[in-house]
Write a sequence for this structure.
């Protein structure tokens, strides 16, 4: 196992954006009617556009790294993600052109303290040091013949906990990029995390987590109680 020091072993260097909720879906990832704008936002509210969050550089962790879990945190959520990496600065993209702006793909494990309300910025829950294992390499877009057929499997302690079929979100990738690039520029090297659900299986200190996908690679990390690492 190797610790994360700076960006050693981390194949990305830009800003990483995640999708907390897709347009028209609730916290369980289920479609619902439009958001009632007269009601104050809460965990049951349904967004009319994608809800984004950022994983800052302090969260980046190389494959094989150790995630330090605070003693008071009994468990974390682990969400497998496809990390799509931009090849060039991109703004005002159309959904149908979005994939052409990408350089390639890698894997990520979006770790988080369990969150009850994704309609507020989950900074403390998602932005702890090492809470984004990512890598091990970025595979060029042209090397993945059928992105919609990619399946990402997440295992906890050697047992498969969940699988994410990218085809279930394939159309959403372009729509999210179109919606976000309407008001901001994705820079070359920036990353968008594509996931299937805002929640994932739970893991505790001592657990080993691995995400894998044919044609993209295998990403691993281990969770340790930070008190045990002093």
């Amino acid at each position: 196992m190797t610790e994360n020091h700076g960006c050693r072993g981390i194949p990305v260097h830009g800003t990483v954006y995640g999708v907390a909720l897709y347009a028209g879906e609730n916290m369980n990832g289920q479609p619902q009617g439009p958001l009632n704008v007269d009601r104050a936002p809460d965990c049951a509210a349904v967004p009319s556009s994608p809800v984004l969050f950022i994983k800052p550089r302090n969260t980046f962790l190389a494959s094989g790294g150790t995630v330090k879990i605070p003693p008071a945190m009994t468990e974390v959520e682990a969400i497998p993600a496809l990390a799509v990496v931009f090849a060039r600065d991109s703004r005002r993209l159309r959904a149908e052109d979005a994939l052409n702006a990408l350089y390639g793909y890698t894997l990520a494990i979006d770790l988080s303290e369990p969150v009850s309300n994704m309609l507020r910025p989950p900074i403390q829950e998602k932005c702890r040091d090492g809470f984004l294992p990512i890598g091990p390499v970025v595979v060029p877009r042209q090397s993945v013949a059928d992105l919609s057929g990619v399946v990402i499997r997440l295992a906890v302690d050697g047992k498969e906990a969940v699988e994410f079929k990218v085809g279930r979100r394939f159309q959403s990738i372009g729509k999210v990029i179109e919606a976000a690039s309407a008001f901001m520029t994705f820079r070359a090297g920036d990353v968008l995390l594509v996931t299937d659900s805002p929640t994932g299986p739970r893991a505790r200190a001592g657990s080993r987590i691995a995400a894998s996908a044919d044609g993209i690679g295998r990403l691993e990390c281990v969770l340790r109680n930070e008190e045990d690492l002093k």
About this structure: The CA atoms of residues 11 and 137 lie 6 Å apart.
